[in-house]
Each structure stands twice: as structure tokens, then as C-alpha cells.
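Newbie here. four chains, one complex. Structure please?
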Amino acid sequence: MDMYRLDLNSDMGESFGAYRLGRDSELLDVVTSANIACGYHAGDPATMRETVKLALAKGVGIGAHPGLPDLLGFGRRNMDISPKEAYDMVVYQVGALYGFVRAEGGTMQHVKAHGALYNMAAVRAPLAEAIAEAVYDVNPELILLGLSGSELVKAGQKIGLRTASEVFADRTYQQDGTLTPRRQPDAMIQEEQRAVDQVIRMVKEGTVQSQQGTPVSIEAHTVCIHGDGPHAVEFAVALRKSLADAGITVEPMSRRFA
Amino acid sequence: MDMYRLDLNSDMGESFGAYRLGRDSELLDVVTSANIACGYHAGDPATMRETVKLALAKGVGIGAHPGLPDLLGFGRRNMDISPKEAYDMVVYQVGALYGFVRAEGGTMQHVKAHGALYNMAAVRAPLAEAIAEAVYDVNPELILLGLSGSELVKAGQKIGLRTASEVFADRTYQQDGTLTPRRQPDAMIQEEQRAVDQVIRMVKEGTVQSQQGTPVSIEAHTVCIHGDGPHAVEFAVALRKSLADAGITVEPMSRRFA
Amino acid sequence: MDMYRLDLNSDMGESFGAYRLGRDSELLDVVTSANIACGYHAGDPATMRETVKLALAKGVGIGAHPGLPDLLGFGRRNMDISPKEAYDMVVYQVGALYGFVRAEGGTMQHVKAHGALYNMAAVRAPLAEAIAEAVYDVNPELILLGLSGSELVKAGQKIGLRTASEVFADRTYQQDGTLTPRRQPDAMIQEEQRAVDQVIRMVKEGTVQSQQGTPVSIEAHTVCIHGDGPHAVEFAVALRKSLADAGITVEPMSRRFA
Amino acid sequence: MDMYRLDLNSDMGESFGAYRLGRDSELLDVVTSANIACGYHAGDPATMRETVKLALAKGVGIGAHPGLPDLLGFGRRNMDISPKEAYDMVVYQVGALYGFVRAEGGTMQHVKAHGALYNMAAVRAPLAEAIAEAVYDVNPELILLGLSGSELVKAGQKIGLRTASEVFADRTYQQDGTLTPRRQPDAMIQEEQRAVDQVIRMVKEGTVQSQQGTPVSIEAHTVCIHGDGPHAVEFAVALRKSLADAGITVEPMSRRFA
């Protein structure tokens, strides 16, 4: 009999110098994987070191979270970068985090692209392939995290990486398995119970109810836990409890491949 | 019988985006170790990848060349950074270059701090120790390059790193083994032959004639080859030939420890 | 009787710290207006001061050349910035250059957006309007330079700015007055005489021969002189001579409104 | 009969992109002059525009707050910049803020250097003179704010600028009129009443009680109001009330020269 399992991942280490951001320490008590900013869209060397150290201490899987070189825009503005530029900036950032992981005696588990880089790589195959290649070239043992059904997950599988398909608790889905665009009024799920139920169904049945009313197949290896918002940590705690009650093991994504 | 040997190192990969700098390809035919900029004082991800690739193709030892976060000042302006900040910025930059070295299937040989970071670490023990610790923590097999007789070399030895003592062909020395400050009129050696002779004597006799007229003990594992100036490459070629004629083997610094 | 007149503009002040770029001093002897980089895509405070000083000494019209905050990409990569973000970055950069113009006792003549910002503003009306508004708000006396027929020129006229329509000597045009995209084989004009003739015709007849063989109306107030390329300055000198021979007065764009 | 008057100044506009910092809106209800960050040590174009707008709406005097190009270190780390570099970075930043002041239809009142730049300029005459010259060259009507008794105030007076001498409520002073270094245990004044009394005495008597027990002459035109700390705004409100009770008019520093 198969075991149900799910990883909870969250963005971390987004402080920069005097600018503090996020509730990393609290979140690290709830999530099982941390996506640590690498200095391009957020993060700085001191923050990277402290976050790696804290994640290791709490047994949370460590991931690099490379983004676009746009600190002012927090990596959220699309930039017309070439696949080669994407390759290079991913190698650079993954390498930089790797330095801290080695210095702290840990292991890097995964890579998750940030913001606009994540979104562009979800739909543009050449960009997705460049990112997958960069991750593979730095370390073929790394897990590549991408939006479930995205070009990035496909590119990762194609090159021979292990991949983790990400789903969202608080977003609705379309008939083709894509997320409902945020500009549409029904994009977000506000009710906590409905969000929890959506995740449980995705894990146990491998489907999500689309906004068109039909069930859609979806792969759910990890769910994105937001770090911002007043109730982010509280929701994560509640979700984790509900998952346990539903018989779903919450654990770092690497365990799936162990 | 002991063999005489010397490494020739040069700064590389200092281009940034549309800004091209240096004659890297030519220099890589002459030197045996390359200090590759890591994006703080100079360099960018594409340049790092290309320089690593080229150095590997030419059999030149690869080193990380971390600097201060001051692209505008090319890392040449002293900054009052704390030892912990120095630690973090070295781990970050060495890690970033490490990404490209892994991606290209190579090995990193050494670390040389750049500009103001190099100069400050030569005389400030706490800063030197933080840098040595950073290098050690990322990889204890790395060789730490520092000014001959400097605090950085001492710190490297203290923590258990292999170290390479750097000397200068075109700089004069003081009775205490330090370089004559650049602001003094007799700081530079202009005559090519005198510069070559100084290097040969440092390698073979372990001494340098000080400006005070007395010989001073000095350790010479590697000599700094400048990449700028109209005759930089030409001097390097001439030096290398003279070293060979004097029975000194020119090879990457790692061979010393092989 | 109407006088024929034309401004020659060129990008300037694109050096950054140790990185030197361009043949500014030579170009300033040929062109009549200088677009001075403001520190976002290129340029630094020292370079801005020196370039303003030199332009004033040579009687060349001074313009701000604001770009995207992307030094690594030289401002050539499109970024999904909002109109408000465009407004703010133009006010910031024009203001910064204004500081040097005041310090040197000069006057600012015009504003020309750089690279991707110029290209995006040529076709996106909301972005064009935000840039025009920024220029107007800083100083309604400034001339807004834009691609002939572009949204930016329209936005400038709409808000009440004086505008200068830019044409290219070395680019071919389409039936609708737009430039032939660079990816097409016939985008560039290689023959110097043909390039010169195209400019003279644009000024004297107000038309350009399209790639479809039909003449197209075009407004030609200023022509873009490239600073890069081995023969850039030489071509500018030849063009200027030919214009004089054809009875076209070459002078800063501000004279048109005097 | 002479009127007693004092300006309250505070650092503002230190947010950067997604990073929010400070309680600007509340502080602007209490202080009379705002030092607005210009994008080097903190601040971004959008924040500059919003802060200028808010200060104008609340009748608070607007000042440029140029700092070192060190966002990561918040401009607090000394850098070995040359006087010319200081000149250029002050012109650039004052100019940039000037853009927003013009766009919002306001007037710039003063310039206050930030952090390490302020501290270095307090004791290094050549740096102080370069900063004073930069301010004067951009606009000789600007008031230059500096530490009371500092080289910066002297340099401002020497070049012909109006100057504002800054004092601190919560810092103790030495016999020579300098601030007790922060590393000393008696550097800070913790008791609110003692801090208020010190300010009132400085304004009314022109003296401060030194740590050596003797009164020292001091010029007090403006007092620094901190924006951080849990009770910063509350202390400012209390101080302002006490000043009014003591018959001291609290008003922008420019009124002194009206």
C-alpha cells in the first residue's frame, strides 16, 4: 500500500542588510523545505548563512531560491533574459548558497526559481531547459521544484533530474490544470477549510476541481506556504494538522526519493 | 635535491556585461593560476563561466578572487567591514565560482582576496582569520594565497590551510619585508631586467634586497602578473622565459603540494 | 524661405568606474546633442560630471539619457515595469543629471530614453505618457526626443512638451513608417552613401523610401549617431560634411525652437 | 528680544522596494525637517516621490540625505572615498531628490549627509569641503546641516552656505564639544527628562554639561530625532511639547534665516 506524503515549502532568507522581512524562525517550525534567497531578488550573505544554519538545526530541507537580478522589484518583474543568461544566474546563485551549505556542513536538497523567473520558466520551454541544465550541471542530485504540469518540471525530467511538482492551497485551477490568473476575481481561495480540502484531495486523489466544474489530474509533491500575510504561519500550522489527521505524512521532498 | 618552482598568477574575468576588460585569453597562455572575479568588485556570471572554461582548457589553476561589494570602486576602496561580514562575503563569492567550476567539471585550486580586501587582510589579523576560516569552511583543500609574510598567510596556516606566499616583480621591499608604499617614489621597479632578477633571487635564495640595502628573507611561491598596462602580457612572457632559463619550473601552485 | 536643419545626437558618458566605454571626446566634436547616461544602465557620477563639462565646453546640447535599472544588461533587456515605475526612474535620473548641469553652470536641453526603455516607450502608450509626464514635471522646457512617429513623441506633444523626432541613417523603414526589425536581413543599410542620401531626403523632402518601394512621410529632427563600431566617428564626420554640402544646417535641436 | 527656536529633523524615506522601514507618516507630524534618503544607502525613486509629497503636504522642510553607495550596509560602514568621489555622489543624490521636489512643486531646504558619510565629514576637512562645495554648486541657497562644531559646518560657512548645527538629545558630550563615542558606557542618555533638559539648555544657554562636569559652548539649531526604536515617535512628541512649554519655537531650520 502506498503512503500519502507531502512537502511544505516556503520562501526564506529574504532580509537584506538593515531590512528585515519574514517570520523565518516560526515558519521553519512548520514547513519541511526552505527556499533560501540567494542575493539577487532578496537575501544577503549574512542572511543566507543564518537561514541555512537555522534550517539545518530544525531539520528542514534546504533549497536555493534563485531569482532575477532585481532587488528593487523583488524579482517580480519579468525581464527578457536569454536562456544562457538564465543558466548563468542560476549556476551563480545555487553555487553561492552551496558555499554556505558546505560551510555549515549540510546538504542542499532542491532548487526553486523565484517570482518572475519561476513564472516565465513555467511556460517558456527554452528558459525552463536552461534552468534545468544549470541545476543539473551544478549537482545532478538536486531536486528541481516547479509548478505542477509546467515546462520547468518537464525540462527537469527530460534532463534526468528528480522533480517536485508544486501545488497551491489558496489558488483555484482551470480546466487545463493551470492556475486561474490572479487578475480574475475567483483566483484566490479565501476559506481555510476549502483550501485544506483542496490540498488533501490533490494528494490523495491526484485531482483538483477546476473552476469549470470538472476534476483535473494534478501531481502534488509539495505545497507552497506563504510567509507573508498576517495569518500565514497560523494557516500553515492548521494545514499541517489537517494533513496529519487525513493520514498524509508531511516530510521534506527528498524523502520521496529515499 | 630540491627543485625550484614558481607559480604565476593573474587576475581574470573582470569584464562586466557590456564592459570588457583585460586580455584574459592571452594571459592564460602565460600564467599558471587565474584569480577569477566573483561579481562583487568585478565579473558577472557569464564572464565567470567563460573564464573558468578557458582556464580549464588551458590547464591553468582556477582560483576564486573575492572582493568588496564595490563595483564602482573596483573593490579598491577600503571599507570598514567586520570580520563576520568578510567571512560571509568570501563564502558567498567562493561558492558562486564553485558553481561554475562544478558545472564545467573542474576543480578549484585556490582563493585570493582582491584589492582593498587583500590589503586589509594583509595587516589586520581578525579580518585575515575570518577570511581563512571562510575558505576553510567551504573547502579545506583550497590553497589560500596571500602577500608573503602577511597576516593572511599566517591565518591560513593557523587554521590548517595550505598557503601560497605572493611576491611582486615590480615592487620594492622594505627592511621588514613589507612592500614600499606606492606613494613613495621608489616603490616601483621600472627596469624589466631588475624585476626579473628580483624574482629569481627570491625563488632561489629566499631573499630580497630591501630599499635599506640589506637582504630580507622572503617566501616566494607565486608572483603577481598584472593584466593591465600596455606591456603586461609581454613582460609575463619574458619573465616566464627567464625563469625557465634560470632552472625554475613554472607551474600551478597546487603542484607544490602534490 | 524655410531653412533645412538637423541635429546629430549620440549616447555619451557610458563609462562606469574602472570600465571605460566610448569615444566621447571625439564624438563631441561632431555631434550637436549628447545623451548622457545617468547611472542606471551605464554611467556614474564622475563620468556624468566630466561628460557634462566636456559637452558644455564644446557647445553641445546636453540631454539626460535615463535607462532601466540593469547595468549588467546595459539597459537593453525589456523589463515589465509599470508606468508609475517608469515615471519615477525618469524623474530620478533626469534629476541626478540636472545636479551636474547646475553644478557646471549649464542648461539641460533634452531627454532621450535609452535602449529597452526607448523601444518600449515607442510602442506602449501608457509607458510613453508616464515618461513624458516625468520630463514635463521636472521641467516643461525640456525637449523630449523619441523615435519619429512613436507613441513617445505623441505623448510628449499631448502633454505640451517640445519634441524631437529621431531618424536613423543606417536602418531601413517599413511602409508604415516603423523601422525594419533588426532580425530581418534587410534591416541595416551598409553603404555609407545610401545612408547619407536617406538622411538628406528625410530632411529635405520629409519622406523615406520604404522597403516596400513606396515613399513614406517621416519627420526628421535629429539623427542617431552611434558611438560604437570601428568607423562610428568617421561616418559621423562624413555625414556632417555631406549635410553641409546639401545645405542642411547641423545644430543642436533646441535651435529649432529658438 | 531674541526668540528661542529649534528645528527637529529626522531621517525619512528609507524604504526600498518591498522592504518597508520607518514610521515616516507619524514622524512627519512631529518633526519640522525631513532628511530624505536618495537611493544610495536607502530609498528608491517611488519612496522618494511619496516622501517628498507627504512632507510637502505636512509643511515639513525637505532635505536631501545623501549617503555612501552601500545599500547592504545602510551607509554605515566607512569607505575610503576621495573628496572628489564625495563631491560627485552628493551632487548626484541631491540632484536626484531635486527632480522629485521640482515634480511635486516644492522647494528643497537643506542637505544632511547620512551615517558614515556624516561621521567622516565631521572630522575630515577635505571631505567636508568637497561636500560643502557639492551642495553649493547645485544650489547655494541650500542649508548645510552638520554636527555642531564639526568640520562640515565649518566648510559650509567657509564656502558661503547657510549652515544648521545639529545636536543630540540622547547623547552625552565631551569637554571638547564632541560626542562621547558610542562604545563608552556613558555615551547614551537613557532618562527622557534629562535628554529634554539637555536640549532646552543647549538652545537657551548655548551650553551643554560635559561628561567631565564642565559646561561647554554648543550651537543648537536642530536636534536629531531618531525614527527607529519602539518609543521614537513618542519621545519626539514629548520633546516637542516640553520645548513649547519652555518657550522655544519649533520650526523648520529655514525660518531662522527668513
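Moderator note: Strands of chain B lie at 5-12, 33-37, 61-65, 110-112, 143-147, 162-167, 207-209, 215-217, 222-225, 249-250. Chain B is about 40% helix and 15% strand. Thread marked as resolved.
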